[in-house]
C-alpha cells in the first residue's frame, strides 16, 4: 500500500512540474530600450541586470534573441532585422519602423504570451504596437513603461534642452537624415493621441515614474486617468547623472518592477 502511495504522489508531482514547465515556456519578456541606447554594446547597461533578475527569480530561459526557446527578448531597432544588434542612431528612426520589428517578434512566436518592459521611448513603442495591432494586443498580458514620455514632448517642455545633448553626443543624429522620432513623440502627434485614446482591452498597463528624472518629466510620463502609475524618488550615483534609468539600474526597484510586470504584484509608492 505504501509503495502504491509513493508511486501515486510521484506521478502527481511529475504532472504538476510538467504543467508548470509548459506554462512558463509559453511566457516571454520583451525588453525595449530607449532613445540612443547603446545596449548591447554597452557592458554597463541595465539590460543584463534586468535579465539576470528574470532568470534567477522566474527561471526564464535566456538564449540568443531569435532562437525558438528564448524567453527574454532584446528588442532591436535595427533596419536589417529584429534579431540584429542596432546602432544608437537607429533608435531615432520613425515609430512605424520600430512597430514593424515588434510585429516580427509576435510572428515568430504566435502561441506565446508577452510581457513588455519599455524604458523611455520603449514604452511608447510598446503602447503604440498594442494599439495598432490586434495580434500584439491580444497576446500581450502586460506592459510596464518606465520614464516614458507617453503624453508626448513639447518644444516648450522643461527638459527640451536635453534633446540637443542627446542628439549631439549620444546618437550623432545630426548626420541622420531619416530622423523622424521627434515628430512622432510630440504631444500633438497622432501616435501620442492614439495612446491616450486607445482601449487596451486585456492588456494591463502600468506607468513607472522617477520624480527626479531630468530627461522625462513626471507629468509627461503618466496618464493618471487611464493607467495605474507608481512614483519613485531616486537619484543615481553618477556625477552628471540624469536619473533617467536609475530605477532599472538598482536591484531592489528593478526587482519590484519585474514582479509588477510578470506577476501583477502591485507597488506601494507615494506620488505626492
Structure description:
By secondary structure, the chain is an alpha/beta fold. The protein has one domain: Rossmann fold (3-Layer(aba) Sandwich), CATH 3.40.50. 40% of the residues lie in helices and 12% in strands. The chain is built from ten helices and six strands. It has a six-stranded parallel beta sheet, sandwiched between helices. The chain is globular.
DSSP strand (E) fraction?
Answer: 5-15%
Oligomer: single chain
- The topology string of helices and strands comes to HEHEHEHHEHHHEEHH
CATH topology name: Rossmann fold
The CATH homologous superfamily: Alpha/Beta hydrolase fold, catalytic domain
Measured between the Cα atoms of the first and last residue, the distance is 63 Å
Averaged pLDDT: 84
- As for the number of domains, it is 1
Taking strands numbered 1, 2, ... along the chain, how are they ordered across the largest sheet?
A: 2-1-3-4-5-6
Portion of residues within helices = 40-55%
Largest sheet: 6 strands, parallel
Structural class assignment: alpha/beta
- Quickly count the helices: 10
Low-confidence stretches: 8-23
For the CA atoms, what is the radius of gyration?
Answer: 20 Å
| Named CATH architecture | 3-Layer(aba) Sandwich
Shape: globular
- Return the CATH class: Alpha Beta
Number of strands: 6
Structure keywords:
272 residues, alpha/beta, Rossmann fold, 6-stranded parallel beta sheet, 10 helices, globular
Question: Would you summarize the structure shown here?
Answer:
The protein has 272 residues and is an alpha/beta fold. It has a single domain, classed as 3-Layer(aba) Sandwich (Rossmann fold), CATH 3.40.50.
Amino acid at each position: 500500500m505504501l509503495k502504491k502511495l509513493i508511486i501515486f504522489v510521484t506521478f502527481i508531482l511529475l504532472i504538476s512540474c510538467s504543467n508548470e514547465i509548459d506554462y512558463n515556456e509559453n511566457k516571454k519578456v520583451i525588453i525595449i530600450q530607449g532613445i540612443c541606447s547603446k545596449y548591447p554594446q554597452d557592458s554597463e547597461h541595465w539590460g543584463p541586470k534586468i535579465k539576470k533578475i528574470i532568470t534567477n527569480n522566474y527561471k526564464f530561459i535566456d538564449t540568443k534573441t531569435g532562437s525558438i526557446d528564448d524567453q527574454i527578448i532584446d528588442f532591436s531597432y535595427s533596419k536589417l532585422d529584429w534579431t540584429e544588434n542596432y546602432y544608437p542612431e537607429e533608435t531615432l528612426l520613425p515609430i512605424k519602423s520600430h512597430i514593424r520589428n515588434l510585429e516580427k517578434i509576435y510572428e515568430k512566436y504566435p502561441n506565446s504570451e508577452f510581457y513588455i518592459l519599455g524604458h523611455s521611448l520603449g514604452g511608447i513603442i510598446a503602447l503604440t504596437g498594442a494599439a495598432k495591432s490586434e495580434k500584439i494586443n491580444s497576446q500581450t498580458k502586460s506592459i510596464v513603461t518606465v520614464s516614458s514620455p507617453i503624453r508626448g514632448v513639447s518644444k516648450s517642455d522643461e527638459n527640451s534642452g536635453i534633446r540637443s545633448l542627446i542628439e549631439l553626443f549620444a546618437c550623432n543624429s545630426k548626420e541622420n537624415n531619416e530622423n523622424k522620432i521627434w515628430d512622432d513623440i510630440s504631444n500633438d502627434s497622432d501616435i501620442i493621441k492614439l495612446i491616450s485614446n486607445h482601449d487596451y482591452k486585456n492588456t494591463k498597463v502600468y506607468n513607472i515614474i522617477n520624480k527626479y528624472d531630468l530627461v522625462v518629466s513626471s507629468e509627461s510620463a503618466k496618464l493618471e486617468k487611464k493607467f495605474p502609475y507608481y512614483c519613485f524618488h531616486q537619484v543615481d550615483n553618477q556625477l552628471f547623472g540624469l536619473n533617467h534609468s536609475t530605477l532599472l539600474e538598482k536591484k531592489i526597484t528593478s526587482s519590484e518592477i519585474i514582479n509588477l510586470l510578470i506577476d501583477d504584484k502591485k507597488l506601494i509608492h507615494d506620488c505626492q
